[in-house]
Amino acid sequence: MVVEQMAGNLIQGLVLGAVYGMATMGLSLIFGVLKVVNVGHGAFIMVGAFIALLLFNTLGINPVLAVPLAFLFGLGLGLLFYYSVMQRLIKAPELATLLATFSLGLLLQEVVKLLFGSEYRGYNWAVGKIDLGITVLPMSKLYACAGSALIAVLLYLWFNKTRAGSAMRSVVEDSEGARVCGVNVGAAYALSFSLGIGLTVASGVLLTMFIPVGINPYMGGHYTLKAFVIAVLGGLASPYGAFFGGLVFGLLENGSYTLFALIPGVEPFALTRFFSFLMLLIILLIRPTGLLSEKRT
Amino acid sequence: MNRVTQYYPILPVLLAYAILFIVGQTVSGTWQLVATLLFYCAMGQAFNIFLGMTGYVDFGYVAFMGMGTYGMALAITRLAHLPGLGAVVIVIGFGLALLMATLLSLAVGAVALRLRGAYFAIATIGVNEGFRFLIEGARIWNGAEGMIFTAQLVNIVGSERASRLMTYWADVMVLAIAVLAAAVTLFYMRNRVGYALTALREDEDAAKVMGINVTKYKIIAFITSACFAGLVGAASWALKTPYVFPPEVFEIHYTVEAIIIVMLGGAGTLLGPIVGGLIYGISKYYLSIFLPGLQLLVFAPIIIVIIVMFPEGVVGVLKNRTRNTALGRFII
């Protein structure tokens, strides 16, 4: 019984984990290139979720199509925020960028709250389900999982096979060296910031498949925390590390939930949340560079 | 500077708090607003000791206020049935608030203070949520239901004194905590702790090379800040409104307000949290009348502008303007 339940939950965890991973790639990309932690990360996920909700409910556009639209919207938002705020803070102390990204997230939350109110909403994209015997997987979740993997592969190809991608990688390695070699570091910063925001907003669309009634201007906070755990698991500066970190996190989250549910007299859901925070502290304590990160030579 | 004149900057602080107190007591109908302002100033003063002096942001700061609230709540609920203790329970409550805030700051600090800059922020951002979910998940201290202890408070001090405590003395205690926090801030600034923290804020590696034990001074600032946060929670939350619910006392919103107050006033200045607290508190009060629920929509862009254009805040600008003038001696 328990074993079957565990297996079923782990499958669910793996499917959700792929989306978690994709939702963290933007955070890692921005940290890798700009050395800026986007503390407002969750708010950008929330924007994506609202885009999916509005497109579905008002125009009947299905979420598959909403992903590229959200990505483009995020790209624009990223460019706007980069040139209006972040660019001026690249040389500023870390405190400034932390507070700035935090405030940008706050601003997004408040704007969305003003426009759409703060009640919980959701939508239902019913496209059938698959019964695996031990667990039932809605097709919408599988599409989200496949979409996440596809985006991760595309990002990998873009990074490794294009000129702009290699320029970006050179900035990650050594921004001064890249500048000397003729890379336009300013443009690389702008591009990676907006790309990171674009990916994050797009991931918000995919996450809505997992939260049928959980869309709200303040939903982002939990995802910021989860994204930090995942990013740190994957080494913080590596988008692919983040993707695999997401898979690991999805498994750990659902696995620990199943175990906590066996303990009488506790709230397994809340304990799972606590567990993910504890995991963050433990990883930071034993290996701040990430459990999955490759050794740099 | 001799020993006395270097402590002159405490005078404008005392003056500001005295004026606030007198206005609240003499102008009828203003005490509620004054109490709120005192809360913001005290919270800012406590937060500033860490953020302002070290340049590190603790996004989980509200957890220390939550711990203080629980400390007071536990003292009142667990000791109310003992006869003859009376108001001593309140003193024990403050002691417990200090102890619990210190313990949490030691636990968090042990991990987070070994980390630099961005990693520190990442480690702290989940502290309040993590703790809230531990209390709710493991059903510690009544779990998600929280505790309501008005009856026990009445039991301890009598109903008349209890209502006086909630509407007046709790606010006076917040005032005392704010003044004490300012005094400690100034004391640190004028001693080894402050010099070490300034060096570390400007360049941590250089400070280390110079032989400064940066971790030690970070821990001192972190624990001091946490202790004052705990006291603010105990006085302003547990005594003023005798109940505690985990989602409320671990709400990240208060960390946001503390950041706004400190950045607005000027991080690392003595007067900053007061100026920031007054500006934020008064504008929030009027915004809640004219634009209810929109104060953060107004303050989020303001804080972004401050970070980009005036990172030193109102008092920081004022300090630069008055440098080498008679007034400058009082403003830091």
What are the main properties of this structure?
heterodimer, A: two-stranded antiparallel sheet, B: 332 residues, mainly alpha, 74% helix
Give the helix level of chain A as a range of percent.
over 70%
Shape summary of chain A: globular
- Beta fraction of chain B: under 5%
What's the average pLDDT of chain B? 91
| Oligomeric status | heterodimer
Folded structure, characterized:
The complex is a heterodimer of chains A (297) and B (332). With 297 residues, chain A is mostly helical. Chain A has a single domain (2-286), classed as ABC transporter involved in vitamin B12 uptake, BtuC, CATH 1.10.3470. Chain A contains 11 helices and 2 strands. A two-stranded antiparallel sheet of chain A has the order 1-2. In chain A, strand 1 and strand 2 form a beta hairpin. Chain A starts with a helix and ends in an 11-residue tail after the last helix. The relative contact order of chain A is 0.21. The model of chain A has no long low-confidence stretch (mean pLDDT 90). Chain B has one domain (5-330). Chain B has 16 helices and 2 strands. Chain B has helices at 10-26, 31-54, 62-79, 88-112, 117-124, 127-137, 150-157, 159-189, 192-202, 204-209, 214-239, 246-249, 253-265, 272-290, 295-309, 313-321; strands spanning 147-148, 243-244. Chain B has a two-stranded antiparallel ribbon. Chains A and B meet through helix 4, helix 9 and helix 11 of A and helix 5, helix 6, helix 13 and helix 15 of B.
